[in-house]
Design a protein that fits this description.
- By secondary structure, the protein is mostly helical.
- Helices cover about 40% and strands about 5% of the residues.
- The protein has helices at about 5-20, 25-45, and strands at about 80, 85-90.
- A hairpin with a 5-residue loop joins strand 1 and strand 2 (about 85-90).
- The chain is elongated and about 75 Å long.
Length: about 90
Amino acid sequence: MGALSPVHLIIVLVIALLVIGPGKLPETGAALGRAIRDFRQAVDGTQPAETPPPAAPVGPAPMQAAAPMQAAAPASGGTATDDTGTTRPS
């Protein structure tokens, strides 16, 4: 009961995926790995080896927000609804 089983690790990974999100999970994992490595080196008293800068992410490019769409003007002689839902003559 004291050891982590594979089922426990899967549950932790699923919760991390839900909390952090699939886009940030690799970055968070890399940061956690660097933090653990730095901690171990500090405990051992060794100097950190020169590490190369992290590679660019391989995943898809982030989506850019689309410009907000404006409502078309109603045809003449009708009614219009404003942002608050109030109907008024046009």
